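[recover] target loaded
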């Protein structure tokens, strides 16, 4: 079933269960400063925007929902599944760069990543992408967790795209600062650890949050 087909199915069978599920998540997050009517109205607009997207080919990575455990609790986790992922070279350590030293491998290569973050991909690119329900959720629960994750960076595709562009700008700024030495380097712990590098812009932001 594709993302679009899942939306159509839930809309036809049990939209009230979908909005009740989303309301429960919103209420927990907003600490009671939300109503079922507001949740229904907000996500109805999102669904309308999604269903108006032109038909497109499935994205290269299917939408993947599985249960993830954190401490004593488990929760459904949404990501994009890399069906062509391969295990890293045996005996080599990860290295975050294009030219890893001897005994290391470039862990930034896509082929070594089993999953990718879901919330940073354009809505128009994933609307007709298959959904893999490894969490065994009911359709309305499955759609609820996908919509929740989809709107993490904004309540429209345009807002999400703006958030991604802003994030990229911040990353580029951090890279320039590190390259020019405008950063703090924390010593690594042990012989097998890595130095922690904090760009000045990030350090200034942390100080602002603390004050």
């Amino acid at each position: 079933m594709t993302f679009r087909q899942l939306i159509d199915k839930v809309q036809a069978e049990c939209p009230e269960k979908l909005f009740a599920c989303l309301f429960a998540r919103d209420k927990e997050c907003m600490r009671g400063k939300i109503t079922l009517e507001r949740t229904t109205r907000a996500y109805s607009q999102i669904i309308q925007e999604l269903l108006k997207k032109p038909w497109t080919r499935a994205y290269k990575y299917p939408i993947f929902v599985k249960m993830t455990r954190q401490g004593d609790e488990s929760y459904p986790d949404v990501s994009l599944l890399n069906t062509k992922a391969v295990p890293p070279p045996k005996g080599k350590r990860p290295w975050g760069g294009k030219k890893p030293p001897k005994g290391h491998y470039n862990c930034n290569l896509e082929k070594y990543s089993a999953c990718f973050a879901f919330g940073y991909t354009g809505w128009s690119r994933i609307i007709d992408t298959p959904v893999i329900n490894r969490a065994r959720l009911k359709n309305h629960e499955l759609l609820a967790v996908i919509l929740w994750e989809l709107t993490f960076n904004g309540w429209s595709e345009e807002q999400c795209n703006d958030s991604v562009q802003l994030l990229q700008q911040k990353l580029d700024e951090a890279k320039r600062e590190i390259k020019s030495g405008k950063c703090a380097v924390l010593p690594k712990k042990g012989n097998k650890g890595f130095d922690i590098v904090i760009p000045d812009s990030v350090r200034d932001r942390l100080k602002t949050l603390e004050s």
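[recover] notes: The mean pLDDT is 90.
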